[in-house]
């Protein structure tokens, strides 16, 4: 993509306005935290002190809006403490310009490395640099600096106290995450009715898993509805796909396909009803016609073979989804969904987080004693300290995008600060402040935010300047207007960065109006210094980039390695259902083989998420693939990998019982895949075509073993689809003749 086109695309993306769910009560609470600090310091102190102290409450409030599953009071307190520390550290050396520039660069470098810990840590760390730039110019003594730092920390304390005293929809975000996962599976079931090969985006399930991590105290207070549905949503996915697939399920035409469509629609209805109940914290309300479908027909089973087995599992899972709510279920009359033996069966818990053993919800299984569920544990901040240290060490390398981002931030902040000191405007710190808040580790977000920041600031300060000229508000009125502006920013934060920047621009103009700053100086200086900081941020990425495009092959290789491990783990369950084999390549360790499947699936999802992020960012970059993958090859390779994961999911839906007979064909196929996988991953990284010859040879021998059977087994039919997906991947990444 040419530079001009790339800049145009990122500019349009940065200026776009997204429809987002608004939370007025939460925005009002956060704005109240800013108001408390501003009006108290304005009443008890001075206008200058009110301007500076507002930064702590403002930034702490921003931290609580970040995408994080940690308790919001903890985020506010951590942000306030970090802001106070940066303020005091900056004051200690602000009297020595050279030393302060060095400290500023080092602090900015550390804030850049913080992006390796996640977006929330990166945003909070960036705000500490901005706080250091703004507030160190105010105190005149060490005691004054300590008081200023204490006021900034008090802003975080006020925000945390308001969250505790005035909770708004407790557990609401976790309810939404779980409900979104259930709704995504319901939508998948509906799409499978018309497209048996429909793909499923696992992002909602990954979000639900992140939301399920709680502290021991939260686990004791967690609503009952949030404790059992996620595992059910995970188990629905392969059963739905297996039932709809024409290779391992029902034929595409005929009475069986109609029955499959009815079951998929009924399952989607039940999942939507449970999602709605979870989201609202109410009882599950099911329509009677859906329950009529989810029972064995009076005339006898319509489906047969693997399709009937998948249907019985789907019926059992649907009943488990209703029972898992532990709340009353409203129906017009009592209808037995499935035979009594299956009705009493306990739901299989999630194999990683909830239990060490499980009962397979097959129609022929017998009831077993339920296992006491466990919760996903969220580590404390103290536990994460060594993790952060290891992350910093891992990112301290020249090839790391995070390290290159940290170097860019340090250089741009230092240069823009020096320029701000040399240039005439009084508030020269706005240039480095803009740069540090705009810069992100990737090209697209940096340029999107740079353009949005300049345009939003132009609109915001222009509007606020007009109001100031016409109304000449006194200090308390300016403080009230500043609080209104920040409240609008909290309310509209998720709609787009341009709108956020406009609200911040107005907030700054009104806030500085408390101290009597001239509107003309505030508006004009902020506009062109903001443009300077944003321009330097975008220029730095052009001069010292960390392109994602050359990383595509590595991300694809990681995805193949993880998905191949998932496939091998599933095949091993057929090769050794009891999970007793150990020591051989491609066989699970002793214990629960399905735990190995679950862990491999999580690795696959993580690798796919890395690929998706890299591919999305690479698509916006103005560079050629330079030894990586072209856009067409990347699209074809992604399609092949999605197919590989979907086919493995089909096979997972038909895992054998522990007492089933081992399948020697599956064992040989698994060994061949395990042997070929490392070389294939290396070939992808080096730009060569993977060789799947041994896998095809093992598949041919497996077909010979089952030649005398009336019909091939589900595992063999699925293995054939796996081999086709592997060949599609090889064709997609094969070097093209020039």
TrEMBL record:
<feature type="domain" description="Integral membrane protein YccS N-terminal">
    <location>
        <begin position="80"/>
        <end position="189"/>
    </location>
</feature>
<dbReference type="InterPro" id="IPR032692">
    <property type="entry name" value="YccS_N"/>
</dbReference>
<dbReference type="Pfam" id="PF13515">
    <property type="entry name" value="FUSC_2"/>
</dbReference>
<feature type="transmembrane region" description="Helical">
    <location>
        <begin position="499"/>
        <end position="521"/>
    </location>
</feature>
<protein>
    <submittedName>
        <fullName>Uncharacterized protein</fullName>
    </submittedName>
</protein>
<keyword id="KW-0812">Transmembrane</keyword>
<dbReference type="InterPro" id="IPR049453">
    <property type="entry name" value="Memb_transporter_dom"/>
</dbReference>
<keyword id="KW-1003">Cell membrane</keyword>
<feature type="region of interest" description="Disordered">
    <location>
        <begin position="609"/>
        <end position="634"/>
    </location>
</feature>
<keyword id="KW-1133">Transmembrane helix</keyword>
<feature type="transmembrane region" description="Helical">
    <location>
        <begin position="527"/>
        <end position="547"/>
    </location>
</feature>
<keyword id="KW-0472">Membrane</keyword>
<dbReference type="Pfam" id="PF12805">
    <property type="entry name" value="FUSC-like"/>
</dbReference>
<comment type="similarity">
    <text>Belongs to the YccS/YhfK family.</text>
</comment>
<feature type="transmembrane region" description="Helical">
    <location>
        <begin position="22"/>
        <end position="43"/>
    </location>
</feature>
<feature type="transmembrane region" description="Helical">
    <location>
        <begin position="450"/>
        <end position="470"/>
    </location>
</feature>
<feature type="domain" description="Integral membrane bound transporter">
    <location>
        <begin position="416"/>
        <end position="539"/>
    </location>
</feature>
<feature type="transmembrane region" description="Helical">
    <location>
        <begin position="149"/>
        <end position="168"/>
    </location>
</feature>
<feature type="transmembrane region" description="Helical">
    <location>
        <begin position="74"/>
        <end position="93"/>
    </location>
</feature>
<dbReference type="GO" id="GO:0005886">
    <property type="term" value="C:plasma membrane"/>
</dbReference>
<feature type="transmembrane region" description="Helical">
    <location>
        <begin position="99"/>
        <end position="117"/>
    </location>
</feature>
């Amino acid at each position: 993509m040419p530079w001009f086109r790339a800049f145009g695309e990122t500019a349009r993306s940065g200026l776009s306005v997204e429809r987002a769910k608004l939370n007025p009560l939460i925005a009002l609470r956060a704005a109240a935290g800013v108001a408390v600090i501003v009006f108290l310091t304005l009443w008890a102190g001075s206008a200058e002190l009110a301007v500076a102290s507002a930064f702590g409450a403002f930034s702490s409030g921003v931290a609580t809006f970040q995408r994080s599953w940690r308790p919001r009071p903890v985020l506010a307190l951590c942000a306030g403490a970090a802001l106070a520390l940066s303020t005091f550290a900056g004051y200690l050396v602000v009297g020595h310009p050279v030393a302060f520039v060095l400290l500023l660069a080092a602090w900015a470098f550390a804030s850049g490395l913080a992006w390796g810990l996640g977006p929330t840590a990166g945003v909070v760390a960036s705000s500490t640099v901005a706080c250091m730039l703004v507030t160190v110019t105010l105190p005149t003594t060490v005691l004054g600096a300590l008081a200023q730092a204490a006021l900034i920390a008090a802003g975080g304390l006020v925000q945390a106290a308001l969250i505790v005293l005035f909770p708004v929809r407790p557990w609401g975000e976790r309810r939404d995450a779980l409900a979104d996962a259930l709704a995504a599976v319901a939508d998948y079931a509906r799409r499978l009715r018309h497209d048996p090969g429909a793909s499923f985006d696992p992002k909602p399930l990954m979000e639900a898993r992140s939301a399920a991590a709680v502290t021991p105290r939260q686990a004791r207070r967690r609503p009952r509805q949030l404790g059992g549905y996620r595992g059910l949503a995970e188990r629905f996915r392969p059963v739905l796909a297996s039932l709809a697939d024409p290779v391992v399920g029902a034929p595409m035409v005929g009475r069986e396909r109609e029955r499959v469509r009815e079951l998929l629609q009924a399952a989607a209805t039940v999942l939507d009803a449970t999602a709605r109940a979870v989201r609202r914290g109410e009882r599950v309300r099911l329509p009677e016609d859906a329950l009529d479908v989810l029972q064995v027909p009076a005339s006898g089973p319509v489906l047969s073979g693997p399709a009937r087995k998948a249907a019985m599992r789907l019926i059992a899972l649907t009943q488990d989804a209703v029972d898992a709510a532990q709340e009353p279920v409203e129906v017009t009359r009592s209808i037995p969904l499935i035979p009594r033996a299956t009705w009493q069966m306990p739901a299989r818990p999630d194999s990683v987080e909830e239990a060490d053993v499980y009962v397979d919800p097959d129609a022929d299984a017998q009831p077993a004693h339920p296992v006491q569920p466990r919760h996903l544990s969220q580590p404390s901040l103290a536990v994460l300290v060594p993790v952060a240290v290891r992350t910093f060490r891992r990112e301290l390398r020249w090839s790391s995008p995070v390290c290159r981002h940290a170097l860019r931030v340090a250089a741009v902040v230092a240069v823009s600060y020096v320029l701000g000191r040399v240039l005439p405007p009084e508030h020269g710190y706005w240039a480095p402040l803009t740069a540090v808040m705009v810069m992100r580790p990737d090209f697209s977000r940096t340029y999107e935010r740079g353009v949005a920041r300049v345009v939003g600031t132009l609109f915001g300060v222009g509007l606020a300047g007009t109001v100031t000229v016409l109304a000449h508000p006194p200090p308390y009125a300016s403080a009230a207007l500043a609080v209104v502006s920040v409240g609008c920013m909290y309310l509209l934060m998720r709609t787009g960065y341009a709108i956020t920047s406009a609200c911040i621009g107005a907030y700054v103009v009104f806030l500085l109006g408390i101290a009597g700053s001239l509107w003309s100086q505030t508006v004009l200086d902020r506009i062109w210094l903001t443009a300077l900081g944003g321009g330097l941020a975008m220029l730095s990425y052009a001069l010292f980039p960390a392109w994602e495009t050359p990383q595509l092959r590595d991300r694809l290789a990681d995805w193949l390695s993880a998905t191949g491990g998932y496939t091998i783990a599933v095949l091993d369950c057929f090769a050794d259902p009891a999970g007793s084999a150990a020591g051989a390549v491609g066989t699970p360790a002793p214990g629960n083989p399905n735990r190995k499947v679950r862990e491999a699936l999580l690795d696959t999802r993580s690798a796919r998420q890395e690929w998706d992020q890299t591919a999305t960012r690479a698509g916006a970059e103005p560079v050629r693939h330079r030894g990586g993958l072209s856009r067409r090859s990347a699209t074809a390779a992604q399609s092949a990998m999605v197919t590989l994961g979907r086919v493995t999911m089909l096979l997972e839906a038909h895992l054998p019982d522990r007492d089933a007979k081992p399948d020697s064909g599956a064992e040989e196929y698994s060994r061949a895949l395990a042997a070929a996988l490392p070389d294939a991953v290396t070939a992808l990284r080096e730009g060569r075509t993977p060789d799947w010859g041994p896998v095809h040879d093992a598949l041919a021998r497996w077909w010979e073993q089952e030649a005398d059977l009336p019909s091939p087994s589900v595992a063999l039919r699925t293995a054939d689809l796996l081999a086709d997906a592997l060949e599609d991947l090889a064709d997609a990444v094969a070097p093209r003749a020039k």
